[in-house]
Design goal:
It holds the Pfam family Rrf2. It comes from Sphingopyxis jiangsuensis. This protein has a two-stranded antiparallel sheet with strand order 1-2. It has one domain (6-141): Arc Repressor Mutant, subunit A (Orthogonal Bundle), CATH 1.10.10. The longest helix has 27 residues, at 99-125. With 152 residues, the protein is mostly helical. 55% of the residues lie in helices and 5% in strands. Helix 2 packs across helix 3.
Length: 152
Amino acid sequence: MKRDSRLSGVLHVLLHMAEQGAPMTSEQLAKAMQTHPVVIRRILGGLRDAGFVHSEKGHGGGWMIAGDLADITMRDVYDAIGQPTLMAMSNRTEAPGCMVEQAVNAALDASFHDAEALLLARFTEVTLAQLAADFHERMAARSPKAPEQHHG
């Protein structure tokens, strides 16, 4: 089963935008993300609707973050992209007639619920400012001779 990487990708785009400190075009962001500008516009359109980014048309225009990084959490971004499924596992059947499978489903459902609640709580604790600070710490700790991994 393919993993859903939308949250990771959107956070990546937002941090590139924050690092730039100036409007970035869909083309610039697409190059940094190794994707097509249409994909970037689709992603950022949803974030614009949620109020996390804004865009300016014309020469010197582009996309910018519309707020303080310390005020935007991973949970905010997760919600803005439509709350994709967090768990790839599920029950074999949702309404089994077998009592054994009902017991298995009950245990799994409780476990999935607890795991998702824990993950969403953690998403609420992590801000874009913290992610940006982690990036800066990693860049500062990087050996001057090592090739740069920041792409954008």
